[in-house]
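haha ok so turns out i had the wrong file open the whole time. this is the CORRECT one, sorry everyone. sequence first:
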Amino acid sequence: MKLLFKQRLFSWFDSYDIYDENGNTVFVVKGELAWGHRLRIYDASGNELGLVEEKVLTFMPRFRLYVGEEMVGEIRKEITLFRPRFTLDCNGWQVDGDIFEWNYAVTDSWQNIVCSVSKQVLRLTDTYEMEIFNPEDALCSLMIVLAIDAAKCSRGD
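then structure:
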């Protein structure tokens, strides 16, 4: 399953549209006014599915991931010198990215790729292409990508 993750150009808060390979809207993400990033995820019919919420007053960016009311994971940016690193507590998954944070993979505990992500450069807005190998992992994969993008935004990248 391939998804195109595209930030809206004219939006007061972080807002994204997520399309499948046929151009159909799969998810809509709407940012809210809050301390830190707060991103609600909806399906194409407008039903709320999840939430990515930044925990404020932390040394490094930290985000909690919710499906409905249940917290299903957390992702934290780590201090590193060269290669960006995130610690992920969600489904036993791990995140490994390149030095620019444009391309990365989410893997399970057996090192199988759950999701691969690549940023499309030379675009007016942040645009990512996601390849998700099991459609059931699409929501959690999307929440991880949103959190990483928000962490980059928090640093001013």
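Residues 2-155 form a domain with the Porin fold (CATH 2.40.160.200).
again sry for the mixup
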